[in-house]
């Protein structure tokens, strides 16, 4: 897919003392007996955009979901925005407020309008007055270019539009970090571009992003780093040009030969 050209991505912005947005150190996770994450080490600086790729079942979703504690890790440490993820529920809530997430299946509330989907969390979690929440929601619906859909229900929108609502909804919480888990892989090809364009514009505004995606055009265009996972491990991590032109490991080469 060709996506909007944007040669002017912001430099990574790192205020002193707070330069690390997410850090995983020696993270292991098991599902029962199954060792799904094996010694994951990853440091994401504020404003960095990381693309994560790898074969199905390699642990990409699990890793992303550990970062906002939708899944629990058993060993190692995960620090998000200066807060270590432990079993302290209050802290988990704090983190979830700062971390926006978009899934493959948009997970909108089907019985709520687009506007209500976007205002729900700001009203109930951020305690924002309804009117302000609606204003904010309209701002982000304009940003993702579907303000005219505000009064409709998710089922009345195309997949691409629903995914853009999901992004707008996440942005309404003013997240410091955005996690994407294959946001375009459930979409018809003609809708992929509009969602990628939305993600590119977020990148241009300096959002810290971790994106699981196989859209390698997007990776080349916006990623500071591309990470390749296989069998629960980070096998390779490099800046996009080097990653694509000179992959170091056989498994990375094989994967790239299959998807490019
Ligand atoms: P990916 O996103 O890279 O495709 P996942 O993180 O979804 O990989 O899954 C990694 C592995 O963990 C797969 O083998 C998957 O079957 C397994 N898995 C994922 N979720 C669960 C779960 N809730 N319980 C048990 N096994 C799981
Ligand atoms: Mg997955």
TrEMBL record:
Any GO molecular function: ATP binding
Show the Pfam families listed in the entry.
ABC_tran
Record has Endoplasmic reticulum as a keyword: no
Per UniProt, the keywords (alphabetical) are:
ATP-binding, Nucleotide-binding, Transport
Q: Does the keyword Nucleotide-binding apply?
A: yes
Highest taxon of the lineage: Bacteria
Ranges for domain ABC transporter come to 22-256
Gene3D superfamilies tied to this protein: P-loop containing nucleotide triphosphate hydrolases
What the record says about family reads:
Belongs to the ABC transporter superfamily.
UniProt-recorded name of the protein: Arginine ABC transporter ATP-binding protein
**UniProt organism field:** Ancylobacter defluvii
């Amino acid at each position: 897919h060709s996506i909007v050209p944007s040669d002017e991505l912001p430099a990574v912005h790192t205020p002193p003392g707070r330069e690390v947005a997410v850090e995983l150190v020696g993270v292991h996770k098991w599902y029962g007996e199954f060792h799904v994450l094996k010694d994951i080490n990853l440091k994401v600086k504020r404003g960095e955009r990381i693309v994560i790729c790898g074969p199905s079942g390699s642990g990409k979703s699990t890793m992303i979901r550990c970062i906002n504690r939708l899944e629990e890790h058993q060993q190692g440490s995960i620090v998000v925005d200066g807060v270590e993820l432990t079993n302290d529920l209050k802290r988990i809530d704090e983190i979830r407020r700062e971390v926006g997430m978009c899934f493959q299946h948009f997970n909108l509330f089907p019985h709520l309008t687009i506007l209500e989907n976007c205002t729900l969390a700001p009203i109930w979690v951020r305690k924002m007055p309804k009117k302000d929440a609606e204003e904010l929601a309209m701002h982000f619906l304009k940003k993702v270019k579907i303000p005219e859909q505000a009064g409709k229900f998710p089922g009345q929108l195309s997949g691409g539009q629903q995914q853009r609502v999901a992004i707008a909804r996440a942005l309404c919480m003013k997240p410091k970090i955005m996690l994407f888990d294959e946001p375009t892989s459930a979409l018809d090809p003609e809708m992929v571009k509009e969602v990628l364009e939305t993600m590119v514009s977020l990148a241009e505004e300096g959002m810290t992003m971790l994106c699981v995606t196989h859209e390698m055009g997007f990776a080349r265009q916006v990623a500071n780093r591309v990470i390749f996972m296989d069998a629960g491990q980070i096998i390779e991590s490099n800046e996009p040009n080097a990653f694509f032109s000179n992959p170091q490991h056989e498994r990375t080469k094989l994967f790239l030969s299959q998807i490019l």
